[in-house]
Amino acid sequence: MGFDTIKRHGAAVFCGPALWKGFKTTTMTLGPLLLLLSALLHAAWNGLAKASKDKESFLFLTILLSGLLTAASLPISGTGFIFPDNRAFAIAVLSGVFEGFYFLTLSKALRASSLGKSYAIMRGGAMVLVWMYSTVLLGERAHGLQFLGAVFVLLGILAMNFQDLLKGKRQNLKNDIWAYISAIFIAGYHLAYHEALTENTDPKPLFLVAMIVSLPFLLYGIRSAPWQRLKATMTSHPARVLLCGSFATASFLIFLYGLKVSAPGFAISLRNSSIFFAVLFSVFLKESLTRTQILGATTIGLGALLLSL
After folding, report:
1. Which helix (H) or strand (E) holds 103?
2. Domain for residue 54, yes or no?
3. Which residue ranges traverse the bilayer (predicted)?
4. pLDDT value at position 259?
5. For 138-170, how does the pLDDT look when each residue is reduced to its tens digit (9 = 90+)?
6. Residue 18 lies inside a defined structural domain of this protein
7. Domain ranges, residue 300
8. d(CA 250, CA 42)
């Protein structure tokens, strides 16, 4: 398994042999638009989570709803809750463990830093980690554009923290640590998802298991008066919870279809445009991103696109 192999399977999350089999026989005209919509929805649900007051309870309700919606889609789409073997199921559970830690660190990253800054670091950092894993440990041959992309991502991350380093703002640097840790878990569940897909696991039950396994981690995040916090979030933001859960699920389902009608490498490149959308949502949230940080996020986004080529 290598970075190029991961891209052939959808680069991280939701692609399988059946999707790629139908690629040449389906129209490609909707593919780019669907993938851009998926990227927009992913950045949007992260933005809604950022705008919430109690991020831990909000994320728990979002993922719970996402799991319920995915479960409901199984009989509708004719997909059963079936795994090829015990190993595939075990990998699905491992994916959920990585997802659980990701959601925990995501809530802390969104609480400690701006959406545009934390999102760019998490997503760009994860891309570099997956690329390094593939090239260093698996011996995948790296191309010049991928090296350039990795450099862009690292320079962009440095630009995000440049002013804090220059002014000695150690607290800001400490706050950003959650985004860096989150990038590790994002890379982890990407690789685990891919490994499960190579076992011919259907993406929907794979995703459903991961969501179920991740819920106890999120429940741990609200261990202090959990029911009161959940009730308060549902009472104060019911529409936002429903919207966020729907966006999270739709971004997954649309990405599935986008992969079906688009070349995988091209698909993940467009999917990484979510970094740019996150910067826009950061502006809408009236977050104080500096010009240097906006430039850094843009550089990270460009680097992620180059890594996908």
Report:
1. helix 86-112
2. yes
3. 27-45, 57-76, 88-107, 119-139, 145-165, 177-193, 205-222, 242-259, 265-285
4. 53
5. 676 777 887 888 888 888 888 877 766 666 666
6. no
7. 3-12+26-308
8. 9
